[in-house]
Amino acid sequence: MQFDFSSEVPLYQQVAEEIEDAILSGAFEEETQVPSTTEISTTYRINPATVLKGMTQLTQEGILYKKRGVGMFVSPGAGARILQKRRAAFYEGYVVKLLEEARKLGMSRQEVIELIKGGSQDEQRN
């Protein structure tokens, strides 16, 4: 896990995103325990309340669940929920804005598609 203490993204949100990233990468599989609030706060020198806020957010979203007296675990289907959430955010944050800007520039959807295809071909060559 890496945290940017100078970022505009709140630290609790960074905690949640780092846990999500670990779930997506397979580091935390479904039904496995995640590090405790204390472990994360001690290791990364983050206020335990901040870590708890990030974990609470993930619990409310159904990504994590709590086993009383044991700790926090990855919920079944957590990876799929994270992908769905992030795809929706990608669409809202990038695609919608891209299409709005393309409209302002008088570009057709086909022109935008061709630009994207060209960009992905450039990436394949590198």
Overview of the molecule:
This protein has helices at 11-25, 37-44, 48-60, 78-104, 109-125; strands at 64-67, 71-74. By secondary structure, it is mainly alpha-helical. The chain has a two-stranded antiparallel ribbon. Helix 1 packs across helix 3 (48-60) and helix 2 packs across helix 3 (48-60). It is elongated, with a radius of gyration of 19 Å. The model has no long low-confidence stretch (mean pLDDT 91).
Question: How is this fold's topology laid out?
Answer:
Blueprint: H1 11-25, H2 37-44, H3 48-60, E1 64-67, E2 71-74, H4 78-104, H5 109-125
Antiparallel strand pairs: 1-2
Helix pairs in contact: 1-3, 2-3
Distance between the termini: 28 Å
**What Rg do the Cα atoms give?**
19 Å
In DSSP terms, counting alpha (H) and pi (I) runs of 4 or more, how many helices? 5
Structural class: mainly alpha
